[in-house]
Amino acid sequence: MKKILVIGSNGQLGNCIRKITPNFELDYEFIFTDSQTLNITDEDLVSKFFYDNKPDFCINASAYTAVDLAETEKEKAFAVNATGVGNLAQACKDFKTVFIHVSTDYVFDGDTNLCYSEDDFTNPIGVYGESKLKGEELALEINSKTIILRTSWLYSEFNKNFVKTMLNLFSQKDELGIVADQFGQPTNANDLAEAIMEIIERKKKTFGIFHFSNYPETTWFEFAQKIAELSKSNIKLNQLTTEQYPTPAKRPKRSTMCLDKIEEVYKIEPKYWENSLEECVNILTQ
Q1: Per the residue annotation, which of 116, 128, 155, 215 is the catalytic one?
Q2: What percent of the chain has pLDDT over 70?
Q3: How many CA atoms lie within 13 Å of 36's alpha carbon, on the beta-carbon side?
């Protein structure tokens, strides 16, 4: 039986993978770790863990994701998102493990009216994006058997995310301002978990960078509007510009990603974001 190591089991994606393991338990043994059970920034610990467990696949669902805090915690962000990824890539290479690493749309600056392909120039505008890009570079440099999945605007029924924050605020406020001039693709982490398992199940693996998200693009304001509609909230939502809602870290204005490659190579068809959002809101409001 093949072993799948899931790093970051307490995060959104880790929890979504855990949720679907019963569908695969006849074929795979899953090993879930969190930062307490495996500190990926410690190279020796990572190497020993791989030696003891010898996984066939390693899914890195862990990350330092505090985008604004990263501006003042650069060392911490790079330790997890870059050094830690390099350690995992090296261990995967040493033990012939396929490495599946999750990255972000924040590796782009968002200064475009088009969608980004996997080969487009990266130019992160904040520490979080810089640290994630460095992780990508280390992973590909160290281990040729690496699959990088860039995703965006991740949400689920687990942990803290935009959907859960909105539902909470809707219950407390009568009116809310939401940024309406930043474009991207909301992605249900459950869909990403399923896509990763589809890739693992493929006999022939193609390595490199792939984009995966729900589609098409939308704005934070339209995203919030749909959450309000699906949850039957009467909240009044007002459009804000990025300038009216300043944050410590800059956000890409349009980080929409092209999804053709994963569809062509792995035959994975991304879902419409409104349908995936409805599934999540139904779980959270039932």
Answers
A1: 128
A2: 100
A3: 3
